[in-house]
Amino acid sequence: MPWTILPGMAAGALLSFSRALGEFGAVAVVAGNIPFYTQTAAVYVLGEVEGGRRASAGAMSVVLVTVSFVLVLAVEAWQNRRMKNAV
Amino acid sequence: MPFERGAAPLFRGERWLNRTLIGVVLAYVGILLAAPCAALARGAFAGGGAVLWRELARPDVLSAFRLTLALALGAVALNTVFGVLTAWVLVRHSFPGRRMLNALVDMPFAVSPVVAGYMLILLFGRGGWLAGWVEWSGFRVVFSWPGMLLATVFVTMPFVVREVMPVLREFGAEPEEAAATLGAGPWRIFWRVTLPSVRWGLLYGVALTLARALGEFGAVYVVSGAVQGRTETAPLFVFRALDERLTVAAYGVSLVLALLSFSLITALGAYQKREEEKISPRGPGAEREAA
Questions:
Q1: The whole model's pTM is what?
Q2: pLDDT at residue B29 above 90?
Q3: Closest CB to B113 among A15, A24, A69
Q4: B27 and B119 share a domain?
Q5: B102 touching chain A per CB within 8 A
Q6: C-alpha to C-alpha distance for B34 and B253, rounded to whole angstroms
Q7: Does B115 touch chain A (CB under 8 A)?
Q8: Domain that holds residue B27
């Protein structure tokens, strides 16, 4: 099969995506924290936490965690199916 | 993980293609990884070695390094014990929720560290689920070292599990069962059979845990409050130093952190190579090269 590396590639891509989605340190240092311009979701959460705005910090966190969790579950399900097919 | 040696070029006779592919990879890695590292070293030595040395001896820098080291070692200790246990349970046992647990182990890789830190605040901070317990025990978790340790443990949790699991799966349960039939107790089986066979996976897991713990920023930043001289780790110091234009100190600390992580991984790779050459003198790729 020509697509032997496809599942691994997809799993790696999904994990890269979810990691990139939440990246904080490097982005905060390089881009600062300019609303509507260089403010990413993770940097936004930090601002809301520091400002004591629990509702908005929680809302964005829930969105980020849900997306990450769905991606992780997708990778897991995919790899399980692959293993069953291989046996 | 182990490095492959003796790989054959994919496209025989198409030298230009192989060279282009290698060149693209080198350029990518060079721009993304090597160039920033070089820039960092240049920034750290901008004022000369003496200035760098003086900046690294600042009391707040030393205190930050001490704290980072303590947190990293604590995270390694906890994640070694519970990581091996988790890997063993996930590989050797079947129980309801096993797949869910397996997926959950990857969450720290996927969840934003800032959110991870915030979750700890929600859990242990004022009005949190465990706030009453925290008050009762007299421990401070948020804005103090227990919370920072928890944050570090959280973000480094998957490494040991994910490095040990494939090794456990590969070597199978037979040696353990054989030891049991020969009359060895569970404790003895673990120390004499299970642990030696997973030691490379465990070592890599520990090295990656250490490297990641040394550099963790987001989760620790949120949960610690970054109180200078008290809850300020080395990466948090770098962040503040950049803000306060203490550039040599910021670059210097970053360089030390980068060198620590890099030498850790490199030393482990070299050690593994030496150990493998003891077993087969021509090295791990010998059979493949002969084939």
A1: 0.86
A2: yes
A3: A24
A4: no
A5: yes
A6: 18
A7: yes
A8: 16-45
